């Protein structure tokens, strides 16, 4: 990937500001990384000093931002084509592709080294693997080669709670992988709903999203199947060490709503108006954001209650 790969129309019109470089880090995605990593850190049975905990979350956030910058560097050509992404710093010409690459590589190295020093080598290694997975496995390979891109690639966004847990304990266990699985299974229906009402973007960019390769009807069926599997996993997690009555209450309500939304999408008539379909699909997408936040929020509440001997089933 080089600057020459970007159309001449993206030549920088003005000097980039702090906001443009910050946008390279995909702050909205970073906020999800920070939150799920924080839950993983605080749900761990072994507490950490607040200063160490702050440092761990900070460097995990920087690592997530570095991944975003590297993704924008490599995807500048397709970002320029898609309406949803053409205003990003690189395709809009506000930041040069080489600058995004340098920033991404620099922050990647900084975040991995500092997380390892602040917590433990295992956490630093997991962060390094997560950055590699997102940039190389997902961005450079899966995204442009298979409709399973978001299914397999979703693992990259599911690693933060595992990193947070390892930062606190230095060890692996079942619980962080339940949080990983929750995010991993949530990712496909979340992004496929986005692809349904933004399908023309992926068509124009030549990205083999499921909506492009298999059509809208198949995508809707996939959303329903994955949502059903996600519901089983999410409710089952309530009976693990990170679950409890609070989490179970949230999981039952949210998964009933999510299943209902997926069912409505699966029953959409292709002959229905585009506006009606857009409303249903966009509504499900927005619900998916609340879904993950509330599940991890409930895990966090259970962790806090356990400190006072109130959480869990004991």
Structure commentary:
This protein has 314 residues and is mainly alpha-helical. It has two domains: 17-172, Tetracycline Repressor, domain 2, CATH 1.10.357.140; 173-314. Helix content is 75%, strand content 0%. The chain contains 15 helices and no strands. The protein has helices spanning 18-23, 27-43, 50-74, 76-81, 97-118, 121-145, 149-153, 155-158, 160-169, 174-197, 199-205, 210-213, 215-237, 245-266, 274-307. Helix 2 packs antiparallel against helix 3 (50-74) and helix 3 (50-74) packs antiparallel against helix 9 (160-169). The protein is flat and about 55 Å long. Interacts with CtaA. Its main location: membrane. It is a multi-pass membrane protein. Converts heme B (protoheme IX) to heme O by substitution of the vinyl group on carbon 2 of heme B porphyrin ring with a hydroxyethyl farnesyl side group.
CATH topology of the largest domain: Tetracycline Repressor, domain 2
Q: Approximately how much helix is present in the residues?
A: over 70%
**Average pLDDT:** 91
Number of continuous helical runs: 15
Distance between the termini: 55 Å
Radius of gyration: 20 Å
**Biggest sheet: strands, sense, closure?**
none
Subunit structure: Interacts with CtaA.
EC number: 2.5.1.141
Subcellular location: Cell membrane
Protein name: Protoheme IX farnesyltransferase
